[in-house]
Design goal:
Bound molecules: 4'-deoxy-4'-aminopyridoxal-5'-phosphate
Family: Belongs to the cysteine synthase/cystathionine beta-synthase family.
Organism: Kaistia nematophila
Radius of gyration: 19 Å
Low-confidence stretches: none
Oligomer: single chain
GO biological process, one term: cysteine biosynthetic process from serine
Helix content: 25-40%
Protein name: Cysteine synthase B
Structural class: alpha/beta
GO molecular function, one term: transferase activity, transferring alkyl or aryl (other than methyl) groups
């Protein structure tokens, strides 16, 4: 059963002070808003989402692009006019492009071919050198995107960013995303639901909250086929499968993913993720990407399992604009076998 949305103010922003003009879109990274979801059945819990989709590059990855480039400039790994190489699902690449290209760096991005065409077009439009590679091979294969990125960096003498092991990635979340959530929720947060791609979000936010709010639990939302949730729940490493959701789920444990921070892990199917992303748009007017659907589905499951009131936070990791040809395209969703028959509202019924 859906709850009715409350009446909203006629004044955008409810009269909060308007942000002052800034001199660069990079100054708009971070300090993202939080919305309470009021139309979903959240059991005894209150559920909040932090809109990382409102960063200028449309994703949570803008934060780490800033910190990883600043760290490499500071310690001399990156010199003026140098080449930057990264393996990315797209969002880290876009963040890097925004920071690096105006400064005159060259940027080579290796992107697996399952990623949406919107993300690849955006990267090419901004001026990155995008090399797509196979999505159906794992670590150790020469065409695997991370191995290919490392190889290109070696051949070109470029700086391999390597978000999967770069400590400036979790540090960005430990120093910005975590403190923002704490402040926006008045220091009272029972659980934070995150996904793991590189592990930066989990480890950064998790480390911050372990310090300032030990009661806060980190909850992992993981696509079916990824090894991470089964590893947390059973200690066993499964044979990885494939999944349609982009940016989260892994076939290995990235050095940046501190899974010891996770208290509860959920495996979420593509069908559930896409239904949740579509319901978030239909019910709340929030256009979010596929990984945000996974996080929302896990957050709803977590909330409904609780017996006591809790304050739960999750993230809109990126904007659904990046997936209009996929998650929000009925034909693609049907072709993937994710829903038998499309009719108005039926995806919403799966989660609402
Ligand atoms: N969602 C999306 C859309 C992403 O691109 C990523 C990063 N690949 C994540 C979530 C996961 O974040 P992290 O790398 O910090 O684990």
């Amino acid at each position: 059963m859906s709850k009715q949305p409350p009446a909203t103010s006629q004044i955008p922003g409810n009269g909060a002070p308007l942000p002052r003009p800034v001199r660069s879109s990079l100054d708009l990274i971070g300090r993202t808003p939080v919305v309470e979801l009021t139309t979903f059945d959240t059991g005894p819990c209150r559920l909040f989402v932090k809109l990382e989709s409102q960063n200028p590059g449309g994703s949570i990855k803008d934060r780490i692009a800033l910190s990883m480039i600043a760290a490499a400039e500071a310690d001399g790994r990156l010199k003026p006019g140098g080449t930057i190489v990264e393996a990315t699902a797209g969002n880290t690449g876009l963040g890097l492009a925004q920071v690096a290209l105006p400064k005159g760096y060259h940027l080579i991005l290796v992107v697996p071919d399952k990623m949406s065409r919107e993300k690849v077009q955006h990267l090419r439009a901004i001026g990155a050198d995008v090399r797509t590679t196979r999505s159906d091979v794992g670590k150790g294969h020469p065409d695997y995107y991370q191995d290919m990125g490392a190889r290109i960096a070696e051949e070109t003498g470029g700086f391999f960013v390597n978000q999967f092991a770069n400590p400036a990635n979790p540090r960005a979340h430990e120093t910005t995303t975590g403190p923002e959530i704490f402040e926006q929720l008045d220091g009272d947060v029972d659980a934070i639901v995150v996904g793991v791609g590189s592990g930066g979000t989990l480890s950064g936010i998790g480390r911050y909250f372990r310090r300032v709010s030990p009661k806060t639990k980190m909850v992992l939302a993981d696509p079916k086929g990824s090894i991470l949730a089964p590893l947390v729940n059973t200690g066993e490493t499964i044979e990885p499968g494939s999944w349609a959701v982009e940016g989260i789920g892994e076939d290995f444990v990235p050095p940046n993913a501190d899974l010891s921070l996770v208290s509860r892990a959920y495996t979420i199917t593509d069908r559930e993720s896409i239904a949740a992303a579509r319901a978030l748009l239909a019910q709340e007017g929030i256009l979010a990407g596929s990984s945000s659907g996974t996080l929302l589905a896990a957050a709803l499951r977590y909330c409904r399992e609780q017996t006591e009131p809790q304050r739960v936070v999750t993230l809109v990791c990126d904007s659904g604009n990046k997936y209009l040809s996929k998650v929000f395209n009925d034909v693609w969703v049907a072709e993937q076998g994710l829903i038998e028959k499309i009719r108005h509202g039926n995806l919403r019924d799966l989660v609402a």
